[in-house]
Amino acid sequence: MVKKPSYHIFAVSDATGEMAMNMAFAAMRQFSIENVNIVRKPKVMSQDRMVEVVSEAKKNHAVVLFTFVSSERRQWFIEECAKQQVVAVDLLGPCMEVLSNYFHSSPSSEPGLQYRQTSEYFRRQEAIDFTVKHDDGLGLDTISQTDILLLGISRTSKTPLSIYLAFRGYKVANVPLVHNVPLPSEVEQSDKSKMLGLIISQEKLVQFRESRLVKLGRPLSEEYASPEKVDEEIRYARKTFERLGNIPVIDVTGKAIEEIATEVLLVLGK
Q: At what angle do helices 71-84 and 47-59 cross, to 10 degrees?
C-alpha cells in the first residue's frame, strides 16, 4: 500500500497564533486533502526562536502562515524564511500597511491586544468550562448544547482532544463507549451532524492498557489488556458508529492531538 503524503502548516505569531490558525482552517476547507497537520507556534518573539521555528518548518517541509504585529519582528521573520528557503505567507502585514495609509497613523506594536477582555476571550472561557463539565459522559442533561460530541472506547484520546478543541473555542462533550452498556438516551437523541467517533489500532490500545496496568501495579494477564477483549471493544465501537448513521470516524493511532483536532474540524466543517 502506498503511504499517503503528510502535510504541515505552521501558524506562527508573536501573540496567540489564533488568527493564523483560523486562516489555515478556513483555507483547508476548500481542499479535499487528508493528513494535514496544522501546528500553532505562538509567542515567537526573539530572533533565536524564529530561527528554531523556521528550521522546524523546513525539516517538516511545511508552509508557514504568520501574523506578527511588530513590523520589526515581521521583517526578521521574512528574512529568516528567505534564508532557509521556507515558503511563508504574511497574513497581517499587508493589511496593516493599507490601514496605516488609510488612517494616516501607525499601529501599535504590542501583540495580543485584540484578546484582552473581548467576546472571543469570553467565548473561549465558556467553551472550556462547558467541556470540563461534559467530560467522560458527564452533563448529559445539557449535552444538546455541545458543538462537537466525541464517542470512543477507553484510551482513544477523548479528554485531551476535548480540552484542546475547547481552547479553540468549541464546546465539546465526550462519551465513553463501553461494551454491553447501552448509550445514554441523551446521546442517542443528539444531533448526529455533531457526532464523531474515535478509533485506535488493536496493537496500540493493548500497549496503552498494559502501561496503565503496570502503573496500577496489576498483572498484565488481566482481561482489560487482552488482545481478544480489545478486539471485541473495537468491533463494538465500529458497530455503534454505523448504527448511529455511519457518523464520521477518525483513527487516532500514532497521531498528535493537534493533528487529530485538525481532522475533527475539517470532517465536521467547523
A: 40
pLDDT tens, 50-89? 999 999 999 999 999 999 988 888 899 999 999 999 999 9
Buried b / exposed e over 134-170, threshold 16 CB at 10 Å, is bbebebeeebeebbbbbbbbbbbbbbebbbbbbebbb
When computed from its CA atoms, the radius of gyration of the chain, rounded to whole angstroms, is 22
Class of domain 119-268: alpha beta
Q: Is 70 exposed, middle or buried (0-12, 13-18, 19+ CB in 10 A)?
A: middle
Model pLDDT, residue 176: 95
Distance CA 107, CA 86 (A): 28
CATH topology of domain 7-115: Rossmann fold (3.40.50)
Residue range 197-225, pLDDT digits in tens: 999 999 988 888 888 888 788 877 777 77
pLDDT of residue 117: 47
Q: Decide if 198 contacts 252 (C-beta within 8 A).
A: yes
Cα–Cα distance between 39 and 23 in angstroms, integer? 12
Which ranges of the chain does DSSP label H, i.e. alpha helix? 18-28, 47-59, 71-84, 93-103, 119-133, 158-167, 185-188, 202-216, 227-243, 257-268
User: Looking at the chain, how many residues does it have?
Assistant: 270
pLDDT in tens, 114-168: 544 456 667 888 898 899 899 999 999 999 999 999 999 988 889 999 999 998 8
Domains of the chain: which residue ranges? 7-115, 119-268
Same fold across 7-115 and 119-268: yes
Q: Rounded CA gap, 158 and 198, in Å?
A: 8
Contact 150, 173 (CB under 8 A): yes
The per-residue DSSP string of 127-138 comes to HHHHHHHTGGG-
